[in-house]
Structure to design on (76 residues):
């Protein structure tokens, strides 16, 4: 079975385990690339763009962690 190229915002929310409103905000702000299609302007996120977004977030998080190491006084 082939994967769907474009995802609904609800599908993206499920993938990221966040609310649909959070995904909508990410799309509207330009943080997550998406397109509007159809007469009603429904948002779609290309699966490849979502994967790129996730990889970007891993890179950003790794950089943040490197710059903010745990101190020995913090609990696990």
């Amino acid at each position: 079975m082939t994967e769907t190229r474009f995802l609904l915002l609800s599908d993206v929310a499920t993938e990221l385990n966040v609310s649909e409103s959070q995904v909508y905000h990410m799309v509207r702000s330009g943080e997550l690339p998406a397109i509007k299609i159809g007469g009603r302007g429904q948002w779609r996120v290309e699966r490849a763009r979502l994967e790129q977004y996730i990889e970007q977030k891993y890179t950003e998080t790794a950089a943040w962690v490197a710059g903010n190491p745990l101190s020995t006084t913090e609990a696990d």
The longest helix spans residues 47-67. The longest strand covers residues 42-46.
